Amino acid sequence: MTEVRFVDTTLRDGQQSLWAYNMRTGMIVPIVEYIDAAGFEAVEFGGPVELPKCVKELRENPWERYRLVIPKFKKTPLRLIHGTRSGFAIYPEALHQLYDSCMAKVGVTEVRISDSWNDPADWAWRVKQAKNAGLKPIINLIYTVSPRHSDEYFANKIREAFALDVYRVIFKDPGGILTPERTKTVVPAVLKAACGKTVELHTHCTTGLGTLCCLEAIKAGMFHVNTAIPPLADGSSNPSIFNVAMNARALGFKTAIDEAPLRHVAKHFTACAKEENLPIGKTPEYDYAQYVHQIPGGMISNLRYQLRRVGMENKVEQTLAEAAQVRADFGYPIMVTPLSQFVG
Question: Phi, psi (5° rounding) for residue 160?
Fold first, then answer.
């Protein structure tokens, strides 16, 4: 039976979704060799939002972080996430190109490209810039729920993405709103449209269904899955590598991962979480409200963090309810950066 392979998100989406990007360089350096030894297809590391967070709040030099961390990855490709011009501000294309080129120069080899509207025209110029920098472009096809976003919609978008000659496509569910039932229909449609090209699944555990969706996707033939290492898995983060791998093997699949070194990583980050009073991911109770406001995992941790800083953490539920109303008023945009921040 086909092997299931994994991409690690701990150092990027895992910490963004649970720790609001509060992971310091000193927390990362000691465990790089363990992550590198596990056999991941790639490791997410870096993104433009990391730069101001490091400088303004952590008082760290992000480029020094890259110089300390990246050379320690001897075997595993590193993957950057870099959006498009439809962000919080309009930056010259030359600045985007410079960022890609700088990240390639420090040792990153892949880049995830998003557009909040799933617009092929916006994908195209970022794909061109990635290739100019020597990076392998990977398109994030953003999943959402609406009468318009049918299985055929996503199948057509997969065709448009691969028409740009990209390395891979990620079927990305940032809000954790994919269900096992929908996975059974949309994943086969997406894979058929991909015509044998590689599609990864990236989902979150915000509704408690992330791991189940991964298993349904694996059963349907999607053998490339994004996961995180506890305590930076589950909750609003991505599914746990340990849990997905264990259940995939129980279903009869082989898993291309060595979990032994990852136990050291889990122990290290659990100690960091306790010392710094940072959240430890756990499987949440089912919350239907997530399907209404659809705030993505990478945003909800920052929302809680910012409300806590101003003494208003008790306003989280009211804020989410208001976000649901604003989303409806805006015509139900796809809830991914930056549209989710505009709504929330």
Answer: -65, -35
